[in-house]
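Sequence in, structure out.
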Amino acid sequence: MDFLNFFVFLGVFLISISFHEFFHAYVAYLFGDNTAKYEGRMTINPVKHIDIVGLLAILVFHFGWAKPVPVNPNNLRSRPLSLALVSFAGPFANFLLALLSAFVFNLFFEAGFYNSFLFNVLKSFIFVNSLLMIFNLIPIYPLDGAGVLDFFIPQKLRSYWEVYKENGPFILISIIAFSVVFDVGIFAYLLAVPVEKLRIFILILAGFNFH
């Protein structure tokens, strides 16, 4: 990845994770939790969401993370559904951002601006947000997928699920560390197909003609 492409990727990534975190904060606010708003996190300003270690990971591994938005479950109305919706809000934000980018991408394509800088930026927005949506829906805590799936776990399995959630960070870090140390790319292998399917689906929704 050359400097210009990396600079575009970094900008797209920071904007995308900022929308992701903003949606978490906003949906929590809609259900009665003002924690993120009081801490200045209900914003799309990337500076408010940057995690230093996550930013360094972007620079080194070309993938990173933002600071999690603080949510106080005790303030939320309509639990446990509201908790699941707060979790889903982040990936849904990425879906909406990818779809909006795809609509503009289609306009550029129809106008014949195939090789413009903005055309390539839009391609990056579609891919990065498709990736963020799929990655964050992996049901390993603290990823959003675990928060969504939590709503559907029956009571008789709840004790097992809680043990699994407690070990989620260890599982996630272990997979990432194994991938880095042995250069395996476990997530890249597992996510490649669903991310590409989602990207194509979003382009179709935006009216893009592949023929």
